[in-house]
Specification:
Elements lengths: L17 E2 L2 E2 L18 H12 L4 E2 L2 E2 L1
């Protein structure tokens, strides 16, 4: 049934897209020897969502 298998990823265990050692967002995790450009920690994603709910992100002392 095609190539729908999620790639194994052990590079960033705290990534928001990592579920049980597999990437749920990308079809391939081959980046030519570089780190994953898609990586974002689950904590950072939660903080961004919280910022959006409260009216925007906070940069320094400004709410944008």
């Amino acid at each position: 049934m095609g190539d729908t298998k999620m790639p194994e990823c052990r590079m960033h265990k705290d990534c928001f897209a990592n579920r049980g050692g597999r990437c749920v967002c990308l079809k391939s995790n081959v980046f030519g020897g570089r780190g994953c450009p898609f990586y974002k920690s689950a904590a950072a994603v939660r903080e961004e969502k919280d910022g959006r709910r409260s009216g925007g992100k906070v940069y320094g002392d400004r709410n944008v």
